[in-house]
Give the backbone structure.
Amino acid sequence: MPVEVILPKVDMDMSHGTLSAWHVAEGELVRQGAALFDIETDKAAMEVESPATGYLHHVTAKEGDRIAVGAVIGWLYAEGEEVGPAPAAAAPAPAEEPAAKPAETVSAPAEIAAPVAQTDKIRATPAARKAAREGGIALASLTGSGPRGRIQGSDVAQALAVYRQPAASVAEWSPQPGPLAVSTRGGEGVPLVMIHGFTADSQSWMPLEKAMGRARPLIRIDLPGHGKSPRRRIASFADLARMLVEAFDDATRAHDQVHLLGHSLGGALALAIADIRARKLTSLSLIAPAGLGPEVDAEALTGIIRASRAESLAPWLRRLTASPDTITDDYARAAMATRRDPELRAAQADMAQSLFADSTQCFDLRPALARLETPAAILWGREDRILPARHALAAGSECAIHRVEGAGHIPQYECPEPVARILARHLAGAEATAG
Amino acid sequence: MTTREISYSEAIREAMAIALDSDPAVILMGEDIGTYGGAFQVTLDLIDRYGPERVMDTPISELGGAGVAVGAALTGLKPIFEFQFSDFAALAMEQIVNQAAKLRYMLGGEASVPVVFRMPAGSGTGAAAQHSQSLEAWFGHVPGLKVVQPSTPEDAKGLLLAALADPDPVLIFEHKLLYKMKGPVPEGAYTTPIGKARIARAGRDVTIVAGAIMLHRALEAAEKLAAEGIDAEVIDLRSIRPIDHETILASVRRTGRLMVVYEGVKSYGVGAEISAMVAESDAFDYLEAPILRLGGAEAPIPYNPDLERVAVPQTDGIEAAARSLVRGEV
Amino acid sequence: MADPDNRPFAIRQYAPDQLREALRRMYLIRRFEEGAEQSYMRGLIHGTMHLSIGQEASAMASCIELSDQDKITSTHRGHGHCIAKGADVGRMFAEFFGKETGYCHGRGGSMHIADVKTGNLGANGIVGGGIPIAVGAALSAKKLGRPDVTICFFGDGANNEGAFHEALNMAAIWKLPVIFICENNKYGMSTPAAYATAVPNIADRAAAYAMPGVTVDGNDFSAVAEAVHNAIARARAGEGPSLIENLTYRWRGHSKSDRNRYRTKEEIEDWIAKDPILRFRAELITHGILDEAEAGAIEAAAAEAVEQGIEFAKQSPAPSVTDVTRYVYAEA
Ligand SMILES: Cc1ncc(C[n+]2csc(CCOP(=O)(O)OP(=O)(O)O)c2C)c(N)n1
Ligand SMILES: [Mg+2]
């Protein structure tokens, strides 16, 4: 089945775009993720990545054309796939989609929301599978260099070499310009805004997202110096909170109401946002939030920040969970892969210095918690060794507290099913109250 | 042991002469192998040297002839039976498949059939559908038979002597296009082990398994590829049954790519067996690309020379297939 | 009979036109094979070839009474049978040259030459391969109520194949309209019939299958014609098969790679002196069927037809290599 190429919506209030340039000629091969064409909206110019690997055919738009959002402008055919007459578009997207329902859109900086897997089977050679099995690396995390994107043994070897190579440590890093990275996933209903914890990134929500299923839209914000966000100098928690409020405002402009979820440091930030954006929030959910007491396992945080290879990262990551088995070598390698950039680690180290100086949480959100009007729930793993669960006791009478069995500091990773259930009930309950 | 250059057919003849000299139980049987010297002049003058008692022309009676050889082998003689063309073994399937292959087993190991069948095979001579087949896989399917396929004069001699020393029926597929090929052959008696493949060219990028004439085409293709930096390992299969698992699997583990080149019809053939063998083994885990089979067309061998050429793998086709395999195009 | 006629059987039996046509075809066979030999030497023909030069009377006299509905099965030495049965030499050459216009579209070559439309079910690369097939054709005629007969050609070497014995037995028990014609040219490749066959005459094998067996001079057109005529009459009358042995000789080697080590020059020359075509031509002249000039004209016409046939074959297109698997199965 050929894959459609559509003119995507890349801006919230965009109904049309102008195709400014094709990067691939008709009949040419393009790899998934490679630049396919540029579009211009009245606000910005944007490069659009290819949704699949294949040969481009049945191109209907030429450079300079103004095209409705969702219109099919070409088809990608797999190697050897017969190119017949142009297929009918699977679901012709209406040109005037209400801005409140973003499909898989791109937010600044350009980042296509997690693509829906095309097939659940991964194309890989037997040698690649063996190497991945033995090296403890997930094939899904690799891009194949073989025909039709097949993962070759050499691709795995290369990835393993990267993981094993010790990352150089630099204390020097330079800040980067630009807004915080926001990625979205489409859906129906009131969106859920998610803020991850210190040293994590938006990818870390994956298990929870899976457990929650595809229902409501998601808006994920990457902290500065984390994930795809630019590195920033953070003088204080207040500084950081300001950045997050700004990003929150930008990301939720199209919505009247959103739910807000934060984990750990993200929880403290969510609380800070709730403090000043109460009217926008239908609910607030905090997983092991920071800022509710002075104690923190700073040793683990430093260990994670300092680690330059999977082997030295793994023991610290194991502190995060109730059961050390949850953190496989494979997971550690994947985690290390996201932290390979020494400047990122240096930026995080500086951030830790301002937020957790002298092994102490230097910010206190208990007053904000006390002022909270939004329906709130706190979830805390029974075996959290990073932040003490007793900090939750600061909550007032209206706030629910859930102790997640069998979980440490990251229950959303360790026990995504119960966490998803708690959240679903909490969000639904809040929506019912609000409605 | 000194070595000199002689042809494939001379090497076979030399092996037969050594056998006739050293073992009075050895006899040669076949159509026109006496005065005529054999359709491909392989027995040539053996009739003059050993006489009609040891070099026996048979009537044109393949079923009977093969069966008589089987019966004689069962009871003390060691016949080397020449089929004029291996295609005619179709007329003798009964005696080869139902009798020779099974007698030892059916008789609970009490009997032995040390017969050797010589099978001139292959296309490229313009002899069309009934004189050009490569039927070795048929016999490879039958437990109780051994099937070999020499690709060099040295092995032609060594495998024939090994076949004679073997207590079980052995079919030797000799490629007609190789009869005139010259190569170094040691003097005197020696055997080439049945069931042992040979690495004819070491390489690291792709394993090409081939036998008989295809070995030479594969080697030629490998040389051309070497100029482009593609380093093919070429394995001379030599023995179809028993097959040398270890040499092939070890090579595939090294190169991660496998191509089997053979002249018999592509489907249900030697290529299928070797591919399956790799797929079933741990060597599977070393594959970096699908396994390729290059075999004969799904058709009888045609008469027209151009059709005949395209009906079986040729050097350029092997070269192109190996290249695309190594370049990751398949 | 009131007027005892001691002219040869053929002269008595067949109309002058028929006899002239028979002579023409015998010359056509001879010139065709010479032309094929020349073309082979020029590299126009691939593979090998088995020439029947010297055996033309056997082929022609066996086929003289046959219609296109009657069938023949032929052998690797089958050019003569094919022409005697009425094939066009142009299409035969085209086949030898591997052309698409050939009788087998270039797939078969000399060894598989056939003309299914004139009832020639084909030459055969397998010695004895055609014998059971001929019996099958006769079975069809009988079961389907057709009057056709089948003539099954084979060599002296073939009579030692199991297929020969099995087929003759079946033809006999079912009384099938088939005539087995053994062209005994003294050798199966290099092996003398006298060495390879237990009985002195191959016709003696008939006794084992309870059918008439006769041995005739295969270079005597009339003798062959008479024996075949009687066998056909018996077959059409539903009385079953017959075995006829035509004693003849091939002048050329077994195939293109024969070193003639198994026979002498003298023997070959003796037989060349017994040229069946000259013998038949002389007979026709003696009995006033034609004169020297007419005979010369027939011979020249045959040569001319062969020239044209070669030209046609040369000009013909070759099959496309992409069609290598065409004709393996019925086309959808
Ligand atoms: C089954 C089989 N065995 C052997 C051969 C090889 N071969 C081809 S022709 C021939 C001799 C046949 O002798 P004969 O039947 O007397 O026919 P002739 O060639 O004399 O016309 C032989 C041995 C064959 N083609 N098929
Ligand atoms: Mg003969």
User: Anything to note?
Assistant: The two ends of chain C are 60 Å apart (CA to CA). The pocket of magnesium ion (ligand 2) is lined by residues C 155-157, 185, 187-188 (CB under 6 Å). Chain C touches chain B at residues 46-48, 95, 98-99, 104, 106-109, 111-112, 124-129, 157-158, 160-163, 188-191, 195-197, 257-259, 261-262, 318-319, 321, 323-325, 328 (CB under 8 Å).
